[in-house]
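call fold(seq) -> tokens
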Amino acid sequence: MKYLLGLCFAALFSTAVTAGEPAAKAGESAGLNQMVVKMQLAKDVSMDDAVESMKLRANLLNMKLVAELPLSKQVEAMTGKTERRIAIYQFCDALTAKQMVDYSMDFAAWLPCRIALVEDEKGKGWLVMLDLNVLINVANLNPKLKELAIGVRSNLESIMKAGANGEL
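ret:
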């Protein structure tokens, strides 16, 4: 519980890493905006290319893609209406995840790590994930676990950058 309280407190005073994202607009909470990392896809990168690049980079970094949730397709199947693309990709470093949960069961709530692909109302693609710096900074991890957590965060950011730029 102390981790969750600390996380909430830290989220109020943290800033997110964003690439080209304006301040919160109508309907968005500035507090939520500060808890996420967002990257807009480069103009020449399709959403399908971004997904393929993320999968390739994850594989290169030994991060396993453990789930792919095509949320917009599920909504379309339920409503019969075409939806903007929303898909969630879940990545995991199982050995690090186990060590984090061994340290505190609360970390299980953060597993696996998620990167969402979201098509905005203008048809532009974005990659979005929780800002793991918030968690890392309030978790009171021992040096070894903090190093592992920073490594996972760096890998996820690398996966996002690869997707946003259509790189390996």
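The first strand starts at residue 18 and ends at 19.
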